[in-house]
Specification:
CATH class of the largest domain: Alpha Beta
GO molecular function, one term: RNA binding
Organism: Handroanthus impetiginosus
Number of strands: 9
Keywords: Methyltransferase, RNA-binding, rRNA processing, S-adenosyl-L-methionine, Transferase
Number of domains: 2
Radius of gyration: 22 Å
EC number: 2.1.1.-
Strand order of the largest sheet: 4-3-2-5-6-9-7
Largest sheet: 7 strands, mixed
Family: Belongs to the class I-like SAM-binding methyltransferase superfamily. rRNA adenine N(6)-methyltransferase family.
Order of helices and strands: HHHEHEHEHEHEHEHHEEEHHHH
Shape: elongated
Number of helices: 14
Distance between the termini: 62 Å
Length: 346
């Protein structure tokens, strides 16, 4: 335990907000603007009832390291484990999702349960997916008796639709209306793209996905600037299925062990299927997009020749109001939709 404590900086910092947040969020951040953690009451997003258990005390870095020590665990690099030491960051994640009493929330990689703790205090029913058997056992023991279900599985390989459908069915209101869930998670940086690809097409289950990601990855996912070297198929994917928003930058000093990069909170508001861009086939649309970017430096009339002839592609580009010499980084999501519908046969 002593060695773990000696590994942690005595103060934690929270950098400036990169985009606008709610007045409540500014209040919480002001408490850490000096670079040190200050004890403050946990803000609950829903009214408590007489049947609710008393709110749990917020975690700090001492309690997090104590929890790790209880299982004799050190963070495993192979699992991308970086544990959150600042309760204020967890509050920001929960506030970004507007979690309230009765919400159903999926958490990925709960670790020692510091974020789970805030979700429970907010009145949520939590499904936590944890790959590490030791951490899964810790969270299961810690929240025994609470509305927390822990599954020891690899999230990137589990059937999350099946798990969530069962919970949603059991939690559906008596009026017969369907309910949706939210995702709030501090995920390992090394699986962020896999998680985004798995979750964003699930607008029929989740209304919002709030993730703590590596800052550079967060910026790449949200910024879809054309003619950028970072413009990739994932940008088309993210905007096809969601409305992304960069919320807050989070300093690397808030994690144990401290990563080499900062993090950021990103909110994805998921679209319903009826709101997806109208393409004849989603599968063929993304197949075309991926093919276009496989030859990123090539003109589309060359990289898409396996779909139809160069003259046909040039004609489609002109019909879509684009130059015949267009390259993939010059097309918006809407441009790709138009091009697909012109050149891909049903």
């Amino acid at each position: 335990m002593t060695s773990l404590l000696n590994s942690v900086p005595p103060t934690l910092s929270f950098p400036n907000i990169r985009t606008s947040t709610s007045p409540q969020a500014h209040d919480r951040l002001a408490a850490t603007s000096t670079g040190k953690i200050r004890r403050m009451p946990l803000r609950i997003l829903a009214d408590t009832t007489s049947e609710r258990k008393p709110k749990r005390q917020e975690d700090d870095y001492h309690s997090t390291l104590k929890a790790l020590n209880s299982k004799g665990r050190f963070p495993r690099k192979s699992l991308g484990q970086h544990y959150m030491l600042n309760a204020s960051v967890n509050e920001e994640l929960v506030a970004a999702a507007n979690v309230k009493e009765g919400d159903i929330v999926l958490e990925i990689g709960p670790g020692t349960g510091s974020l789970t703790n805030v979700l429970v205090n907010a009145g949520a029913t939590v499904l936590a997916i944890e790959k590490d058997p030791y951490m899964a056992a810790l969270v299961r023991e810690r929240f025994s008796g609470d509305r927390v279900q822990v599954l020891q599985e690899d999230f990137t390989r589990c059937n999350i639709s099946s798990h969530m459908s069962s919970i949603l069915a059991s939690e559906s209101p008596p009026d017969g209306n369907s309910c949706s869930a939210k995702v709030v998670a501090n995920i390992p940086f090394n699986i962020s793209t896999d998680v985004v690809k798995q979750l964003l097409p699930m607008g029929d289950i989740f209304s919002e996905v709030i993730l703590l990601l590596q800052d550079e990855a967060a910026l790449r996912l949200v910024d879809s600037s054309l003619k950028s070297s970072e413009y990739r198929p994932i940008n088309i994917f993210v905007n096809f299925y969601s409305e992304p928003e960069y919320r807050i930058k989070v300093s690397r000093t808030n994690f144990f062990p401290q990563p080499k990069v900062d993090a950021a909170i990103v909110a994805f508001k998921l679209k319903q299927m009826a709101d997806y861009p109208q393409v004849s086939s989603i599968k063929s649309f993304f197949s075309m997009v991926n093919s276009a970017f496989n030859g990123k430096r090539k003109m589309l009339r060359k990289s898409l020749q396996h779909i139809c002839s160069s003259p046909e592609i040039e004609a489609a580009l002109l019909t879509a109001g684009l130059p015949a010499t267009s390259r993939p980084e010059e097309l918006t999501l809407e441009d790709f939709v138009k091009l697909h519908n012109l050149i891909v046969k049903t």
